Amino acid sequence: MTRLFTRRRAAGMVLMAVIVCPVVAVAQDSPAPVSTVSVNRASAVALEQLRGVVSDEHGKPLSGVVISALGDTALFAVSDREGRFTLRGVPPGPYLVRAHLSGYVPPRARIIQVGPNIGDMVMAMTHVQGSSSEEPRVLQAGLGVVSEPEPAPAQPADAEGENEIAWRIRHLRRSVLKNVDGAIDSVADVGSFVEDPLEAVARAVGAPVRLTTTFIGDLSLNGQINLFTRTTFDNPQDLFSQNGLPASVAFVSLTAPTSSGQWTVRGGTTQGDLSSWVVTGSSTWRSAGGAHLYEAGMSYAMQRYLGGNADALVAVADGRRNASEVYGFDNWAISDRVSVKYGMRYARYDYLLHEDLVSPSGSVTVAPLPNASLRVRGAVSRVEQAPGAQEFLPPSTGVWLPPARTFSPVSTLAGFRPERVDQVEISAEQRIVGDAVVGVRVFRQEIDNQITTLFGMSLPSTSGATLGHYYVGNSGSADATGWGVGVSRTVDRLHASVDYTQVDAEWMQPSAPSVRIALVAPSVLRPQFERLHDITTAVEGDVPGVDTHVYFVYKINSGFAGPRSVTLRPQFGGRFDVQVSQALPFLNFTSGQWEMLVAVRNLFREEFVDGSVYDELQVVRSPKHFVGGVSVRF
Fold it and tell me: What is the per-residue pLDDT for 591?
């Protein structure tokens, strides 16, 4: 009865959030909105605008130029009749900015540091000066001069308007019975009836081939290639043990604009005893009127295990696991001050008894005061996630890696059970002095089958968990109510944020697998009533003069589950994520940027907002994850 009452109360809060707290998205022509300060989300930053103008070598404005910016995200814009362009919603940081227009030599790619009060860019493009394409006119067989194909002209190193193959197809020898435009000359009407069949085929195929090569030559692609090495360790000596052997990771990402949006394809793979790969595709496009911004995508991942851990071999049916997800969302700008976002994610995992997971969500944002930065947001969501899902789903931010570890259930009888979180949230944010933004929120969660993750432990009748393998189970259900406040500010090239959250939770009856988990980690069994305090701080920015980008997150919480059997209660603790990337300008080429990356983290979860407030807290002995290598953006 208590559970039923709380669900009815949550339903009432959902209705109140939808009616009272609609939200807002600012239309494309209005000033850029203040970025949402999400408590416990360190990646929230104040979005900026990147403006500029494009002209030719004579100073004449160029329209239709595709401008791309590749950094923490990929953005595109097209210049108008006056050559002006605007990239909106740009997170602060370094971006590789390029311009592309067919028939023009693109300017050298530039690294732009996006931040507050950034000035307008000025870009100049040079028209490609090709040799004369005039060919002798052939009137009739045997008369006139038939030109031999000219050698392909040498293209500039950074010219993208036309490659050699496209040039040769365009300059194929034409039939001696035709004009240069393909029409049959009146003097040679009789000869046209005996046209060479091969020539006819070439003429029929030539047009679509020429169209295809022109399309490829004119396509503006941005991409990223990562070559990384990663390993997991608990203590420094683990780096030199068999469990600490590094694994190689290859990753490729391609992004290109469309007439009304952009599409992105990403893929990664790793090899070894645990071989895996993952591929994703996504697309965003705007409706004809501009009121709707649609997002859709999919991901598919496979994990195959060839190692010797007995528990992993039993849990990985047929030696492999498969996971897939599709999603779709609509960002509807009802007016300049009101917007609605709604959509759904559908995921399928072949190792779940009930494989279909549906996660719908909706939010409304409103700007209650005209010409003010205040934003109020109401959101309702249901998140269903499988144990081990973080191994298969790519993160929205940070280093993108394929599945890295194997896992098995704590109890073979209970198997894998998905977690479900129903959440209602109301939040507000306001820009105050300078670039400082303050955000507050209140929320309520109903959690079923809370997932618990165990690293480096041996349960009864198991072979034991190593650094590359862990156990997952469910510790019970809970109701959590909380509030939070956050402050963020951008100063020069540095963005910092601090978020505080307080949660009051009530735990229901523990689940059956939790008794088995409590034998080695009793602190996963929570007291019936408890209060949690959480502080998450983040710093991101560039070191002036050395092209070094630093990202640092540190999370402190009073309720981490302890790794020792003598620890009967949750304890105070902290976890971190550190990433340092160094630009390598001596390796840069015309339209690319090389970087070296080093990252160390023991935060197990990528996201801070979606999911239960206990997801990170119920991870016992989270190991340190090391990633290093080079990446090139082009």
Answer: 62
Between CA 239 and CA 600 the distance in angstroms is 13
Distances, alpha carbon 247 to alpha carbons 228, 466, 591, in Å: 8, 16, 30
Q: Is 285 exposed, middle or buried (0-12, 13-18, 19+ CB in 10 A)?
A: middle
Distance between CA atoms of 293 and 128, rounded to whole angstroms? 36
pTM above 0.90, yes or no: no
pLDDT tens-place string over residues 522-564: 888 888 999 999 999 999 888 877 788 899 999 999 999 887 7
CATH code 2.30.38.10 for 48-127: no
Q: SS3 of 467, please?
A: coil
Which residue matches tokens 């198997």? 415
pLDDT in tens, 178-219: 333 333 333 333 333 334 443 443 344 444 434 433 443 445
Strand partners, 301: 278, 323
* Dihedral pair phi/psi, residue 211, rounded to 5°: -65, -40
Beta carbons of 501 and 582 less than 8 angstroms apart:
no
Q: Where are the alpha helices (DSSP H) in 125-220?
A: 164-170, 197-218
Residue labelled with tokens 């304890």: 571
Q: Which residue has the tokens 């494309």?
A: 28
**DSSP conformational letter for 562:** P
How many Å apart are CA 32 and CA 375, to the nearest integer?
12
- pLDDT tens digit sequence for 455-503: 887 777 666 656 578 889 888 899 999 999 999 988 877 889 999 999 9
Greatest CA separation found in the chain? 102
Cα dihedral sign, 230-231-232-234: negative
Q: What distance in Å separates the CA atoms of residue 634 and residue 20, rounded to the nearest whole number?
A: 46
Give the Cα separation of 63 and 54 in Å (integer): 8
Q: Which CATH number fits domain 222-627: 1.10.3470, 1.10.600, 2.40.128, 2.40.170?
A: 2.40.170
Task: Write the DSSP string, 219-265.
Answer: ---EEEEEEEEEEEESSGGGGGSGGG--EEEEEEEEEEE-SSEEEEE
Of 149-163, 328-342, 522-536, the range with the lowest mean pLDDT is 149-163
Q: Give burial (CB, 10 Å; 0-12/13-18/19+) of 137.
A: exposed
Could you state, in order of their start, the residue ranges of all structural domains in the chain? 48-127, 140-219, 222-627
Question: Rounded to 10 degrees, what is the CA torsion of 92, 97, 101, 107?
Answer: 150
Q: Dig out the tokens for 460 from the structure.
A: 């009864």
Dihedral angle sign, alpha carbons of residues 506, 510, 511, 514: positive
